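lol ok so funny story. i was supposed to be doing the assay writeup but got distracted and ended up predicting the structure for this chain instead. priorities right. anyway since i did it might as well share w the group, maybe its usefull for someone
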Amino acid sequence: MIELIEVTKSYQRLLPLLDQASCRIEKGEFAYLTGISGAGKTTVFRMLMGMERPDRGTIRIEGRDVNRLKPHARAEHRRRIGMVFQDYRLLPEESIADNVGLPLRVAGVNAAMERQKVREKLALVGLTGRDKEPVVSLSGGEKQLVSIARALVLSPPVLLADEPTGNLDQAMAWRVMEVLRGINGAGCTVVVATHDLALIRGFRARTLLIKERRLNEVRLIDSPAGEPAAARPAMQT
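and the output, tada:
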């Protein structure tokens, strides 16, 4: 489903953020992408979306080389990836339904189909019957649930969540993670970028650590310190 093959990425000719980083995430898998702040988690997501290009290396999603896509194919590619952000990126004065349905309106879907899809996705995240409420009246956790529903409204096969619980208290963070695991259980490939080891412990899944500019698969040990065990390369090449 997702492959990074010897990807190198740097900015302004500085030391590479990623240097020959490789990994493979299978269809239907749930995986974490972790690392210290500034390690490159968001950069990996932007490259997967086709918003940035690597200096060297190959990125494939569903067998397609993202870097070789033409503009029209690139736009279609982005519609096949749902994206959830830490800061929600919602229209605060608009209703929940208007926010969730926005990608459908951009795609030219008719109003009846939009209403149906919005209801389906709001039910999926536990917000049934609240479609007319303005986003500005919601808590942070509820806003994140709305953003997840919006990311899913085009039924993408891949969902990327960039620090989706970073602004939430623990109870709401766990609710959001339960929703994300449920989405994965329905067949969607889900990758969550987070530096919250407590969250990773609570919802165990394959974990990829960006360390020393490489992607390494790690196993968390059950110690009070909460540090990852020794890392190994995420994919042998």
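The two ends are 17 Å apart (CA to CA). Helices lie at 41-49, 71-79, 96-106, 111-124, 140-152, 170-185, 197-202.
back to the writeup now i swear
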